[in-house]
Amino acid sequence: MFTGIITDIGEVSRVEMRGDMRARISCHYEMAGVDLGASIACDGICLTVVEKGADWFDVDISAETISKTNIGANGWAPGKRLNLERALRVGDELGGHIVSGHVDGVAVIEEMRDEGGSTRITLRAPRALARFIAPKGSVALNGTSLTVNEVEGDRFGVNVIPHTQAVTTWGEVQPGDEANLEIDTLARYVARLAEAG
Predict the structure, then answer these.
(1) What is the DSSP string of 133-173?
(2) Model pLDDT for residues 37-49, shown as the tens digit of each residue
(3) Which of 10, 102, 169, 187 is most exposed by smallest CB count within 10 Å?
(4) Could you read off the pLDDT of 94-131 as tens digits, one per residue?
(5) Displacement of CA 109 from its chain's centroid (Å)
(6) Cβ pair 4, 145 in contact under 8 A
(7) Is this entry keyworded Kinase (predicted)?
């Protein structure tokens, strides 16, 4: 489990296809304290550390994960920067919201405009996921916990404050970019209960 509070920006340094995709990610984490088998959310995707060095870790990424995330459309090439978050430990501060790292789909950035120091971003969600997104609810986009401002059909808006832009990759996005979308787990269960009647 994660919180959607990004703790590092990593960079893809190597990609290999060996059945699954293996990616090497450079980071600033103290890797001596990260066990093999640990989970790290990479742009919101929960991935398992399978090898590590002083300032890098390797992950294997299945075809299923590639097909459900922005890796499938954009690929991960050397130089790609990623939002990173280590798994939540008991006693850690829960500053965002509960995030599983299981990406539900991909949202497309349609519009961006400055509002004061912040940037308002409008995205289009896959139609099947749009019903789970509610004003003042939470979503995880590229692993970042964000509050939904407004919803209109399958379009929704978020504001990204200057601090978030500075400590994540949100300061680098452009219209047309695709973001990994994880809907709020609570929204999923509330909708399921409503269907059950």
Answers:
(1) --TT-EEEETTEEEEEEEEETTEEEEEE-HHHHHHSGGGG-
(2) 999 999 999 999 9
(3) 102
(4) 778 889 999 999 999 999 999 999 999 999 999 999 99
(5) 14
(6) yes
(7) no
Q: Measuring CA to CA, which residue among 88, 99, 108, 109 is closest to residue 144?
A: 99
- Render the chain in DSSP notation, one character per residue: -B-S---EEEEEEEEEEESEEEEEEE--S-GGGS-TT-EEEETTEEEEEEEE-SSEEEEEE-HHHHHHSHHHHH---TT-EEEEEEPP-TT----S--B-S---EEEEEEEEEEETTEEEEEEE--HHHHTT--TT-EEEETTEEEEEEEEETTEEEEEE-HHHHHHSGGGG--TT-EEEEEE-HHHHHHHHHHHH-
Q: Are 74 and 106 in contact (CB under 8 A)?
A: no
The answer to pTM > 0.85 is yes
Closest alpha carbon to 50 in 30, 9, 22: 22
Instruction: Determine the longest span between alpha carbons in the chain, in angstroms.
Output: 53
* Residue 44 backbone zone (phi > 0: left; psi -120 to 50: alpha; other: beta): left
pLDDT in tens, 134-168: 999 999 999 999 999 999 999 999 999 999 999 99
- Which residues, 6 or more positions from 75, have their beta carbon under 8 angstroms from its beta carbon? none
